[in-house]
Amino acid sequence: MAHPVRNPAYRRRILASASTISLALLLSGCSYVSDELWPSLTAADPVGTEPVLRQQIPPSAAEANPQPTLSQPALGSTNFVVPGVTQAQSTGTFVGQKVQQMRGELSQLQQQVTQRNQQLQAIRAGATQNSQRYHGTVAAVSTRLQMGTTPGNPILVSQWTQAQTDLDRMAADVGNLSNLANQVAADSAMSTYLLQSIKSTYSLSGAIDEDHRQLSVLEDETSKTVVLIDRLLGELSSDVARQTNYIGAERTNLTTLSAAIKQGELLGPGLGNRANFYAGAQQFAAADAAAAPFAADGRVPLVVIRFDRADVPYQQALYNAVSQALARKPNAVFDVVAVAAGGTQAQTASNQNQARRNADRVLRSLADMGLPASRVNVSAASTGQTATNEVQVFVR
After folding, report:
1. Residue-range definition of the domain harbouring residue 358
2. Does residue 395 sit in helix, strand or coil?
3. pTM above the 0.70 mark?
4. What's the angle, vertex CA 57, arms to CA 56 and CA 58, rounded to 5?
5. Average pLDDT, the chain
6. Is 213 in the same domain as 162?
7. What contacts 24+ positions apart, CB below 8 Å, involve 182-185?
């Protein structure tokens, strides 16, 4: 007699029962949000109403991580050492005197480059320490929020202030790198001018063979210095560009972290940064039809928030819904619509004012979550089909 687990019919019955139980659990788990806020789970795709053709691309390991750790981009690690200048006796000719002069100019230039390199290494060391302090503080705040805490916890507020101070120090490091890059750019111009002067000296009359031999050595050492300075300038420019973008993104994340501290629970990275991330690393190649024109009665809202009591805890669900929309459409624009309940003329006027205030509250929440103001439009509407004031969020 065959073992029951190996029996195909028996296995099919087990899988069918497991699927039924899983579906029941999923449906029961969604019911708790129906009183306050819910994404449009059974309606049309919020990105558009036309069918979408998608080609599945497996996510990378970093994209599949539900809690990615963002770290500061690595600074350059090169230690720039000048090649040195070979000394020689002057021949006494006019060209020999020019060689001596240009040799001294190259030596002075290399001393400046050595000083620039020392400044660079010091800035890198300080930036690394500031970055470690900043990420340690942010990680401590995020961990506490993820475990659960009280809204506006003063300990977390103090840690957030420290993180902002550390981020300001990191921004100052970027400013120091930028100033150093300007100084190296001047050195680069000087080295190029010196190299051209050396090449022009070959054509001067009255030189002896020793003058040209010394010129050849000086030209080689100057060329190496030019290459070294160009490498130094290129590395500095790359560091400044990467760190500037990173600091801007982290300021947005700190704003979102402040909103999370006020709420007492972890939201996630700033929505603006998530949009940029998904724009650069989408998991789907899609051919989307153009979104339908904005009409409150013609589209299914992404989110509906019913303000039927004083403190509606909508922030986490709003963040999740908008984040998922940005994952599917990184360039999405959101319409926040204040929907007022009906009633008598006086009740309608009061409801309209309250609905606008609710919409402003949702708008501030989106801003705190890092969504740029240019990605959000606000409007108002009245309807007799709702018993309470609502804020509806549409995506297009």
Report:
1. 35-47+289-395
2. strand
3. no
4. 115
5. 76
6. yes
7. 183/116, 184/113, 184/116, 184/229, 184/232, 184/233, 184/236, 185/233
